[in-house]
Write a structure and sequence with these properties.
about 450 residues, alpha+beta, four-stranded antiparallel sheet, 12 helices
């Protein structure tokens, strides 16, 4: 895979991040998290760091020009002649040009890999933050719905308790009925307190991610599904995960880098050819010596003759590192494939479960209505009504849980194949907003 192809996911992420676009709270939450997160900003800085590796490595292959100035003390002793002593000033320019150094050429290729790795790591961190903030928002919505259901349940139990007390006063209900209603009332109050605490906790999590307080919408309806939520065939997802997953792409870069390390180890055996030239004029020194100018040019060839086995050991070491990188790539591919299959199954399971629970909720609501009529007619007991209320409350909670699991699994599935972007968040946001307006 070429490095240009590796950069495509990041380009998609950045291109699909419209500034200021917000049709609903979900997209706003994700955008705020992307701006607020310090770790993502650090990863963005790593891109700038990685990009500079290429010009640094390239500079090692280009000519180098050095200049300097110095003051020299000279003492000349000649037999049967007086000793000559003098100071001399001079400057020098040196030009050095590598002619052949294979290790530096390999380092240039590795710098390109380092730059690509920084881009991929940022894209992976960007996508992980989008997924984390979206899930945190779903958790907030679920907590808000749970608190709403707990309040509705408390109201229903309170009404049943009040009715039971009234019937008991008229001799139509027993003391046991009143005690059962009071027990359920206490339990409903405790549930409401737990729901409020959970809602507050979820709001704090989102506040940490976004840097602001996020208020859930007053009403959310997830009773319908859009066609775009239908996943493709499993094999399509798996094939995409095997090639596009960020862990797989990073693993491929590690294999390439390890291969280049092996090439650098082999380059230790090759000769190194350098060309150098210098120009060094020196001034006269108070009449003791005439000005002199030294020009030199030299072509040097150096090659290792004996290193005590270090080069062979280094090559064996890099070959082992290359094998290690290949095994890690294989492990990353297998894990990505397994995770993709898991999220695909979770999405379909949650979708089917949501549809089934929708019918169960409808039936439980009808059952509660019938039980209440039966209680008023004397054919059902107070405990029957309380149990029917409990069953309806629990089934509504399970349905909401399945809905959010479906949305979360879909985003996780997209993330596993490195295709999650703000376009998906926008679709979900529009869907949630439309549902809220029609609920």
């Amino acid at each position: 895979m070429t490095l240009a192809k590796l950069f495509i996911p990041l380009g998609m992420c950045l291109a699909l991040a419209p500034p200021g676009a917000s049709s609903g709270e979900l997209l706003s939450v994700v955008n705020d998290a992307l701006v607020h997160d310090a770790e993502l900003s650090a990863a963005n800085s790593e891109i700038a760091i990685g990009r500079e590796e290429v010009p640094i490595a390239r500079a090692a292959l280009l000519p180098r020009l050095d200049g300097g100035w110095g003051r020299t003390y000279n003492q000349i002793k000649t037999d049967n002649q007086p000793t000559t002593r003098y100071w001399q000033n001079g400057w020098m320019i040196t030009l050095t040009q590598p002619v052949f150094d294979w290790e530096r050429w390999v380092a240039l290729r590795q710098a390109d890999i380092a730059s690509a790795k920084a881009e991929l790591e940022y894209a992976s961190a960007w996508q992980a933050l989008v997924l984390r903030s979206a899930n945190a928002y779903f958790d907030l919505l679920a907590a808000a719905q749970e608190q709403s259901r707990a309040s509705d349940y408390l109201s229903a139990v309170s009404e049943q308790h009040a009715l039971t007390v009234k019937l008991q006063a008229g001799g139509e209900a027993t003391l046991i009925d009143v005690q059962e209603a009071r027990s359920r009332l206490s339990e409903a109050q405790l549930r409401q307190q737990d729901a409020l605490r959970n809602l507050d906790s979820r709001r704090r999590v989102l506040e940490t991610l976004t840097g602001r307080d996020v208020t859930p919408p007053a009403k959310i309806n997830l009773s319908r599904t859009k066609p775009w939520l239908k996943a493709r065939s499993l094999q399509q997802w798996v094939r995409q995960a095997e090639t596009s997953s960020y862990s797989v792409q990073l693993g491929k870069l590690e294999v390439r880098n390890a291969s280049e390390d092996s090439e650098k180890a082999r380059a230790q055996r090759y000769p190194v050819i350098n060309l150098s030239a210098s120009h060094a004029p020196s001034g006269a020194a108070a009449g003791y010596s005439e000005p002199t100018t030294t020009n030199s040019a030299m072509l040097t060839i150096s090659a290792p003759l004996f290193t005590g086995g270090a080069n062979r050991a280094r090559l064996r070491q890099t070959l082992a590192e290359e094998e290690k990188a290949e095994n890690r790539l294989l492990g990353a591919t297998r894990k990505s494939t397994a995770d993709t299959r898991e999220w695909f199954q979770r999405f379909n399971w949650a979708r089917d479960r949501s549809q089934a629970l929708s019918e169960i909720v409808r039936l439980n609501a009808s059952s509660l209505a019938a039980t209440r009529k039966g209680y008023q007619a004397g054919s059902r007991t107070n405990l029957d009504v309380l149990r029917a209320q409990e069953v309806l409350f629990a089934s509504r909670g399970e349905q909401a849980k399945a809905n959010y699991e479906m949305l979360s699994a879909f985003l996780a599935l997209k993330a596993e194949v490195a295709s999650l972007n703000l376009g998906d968040i926008q679709l979900l946001d529009d869907w949630l907003t439309a549902d809220a307006s029609t609920s």
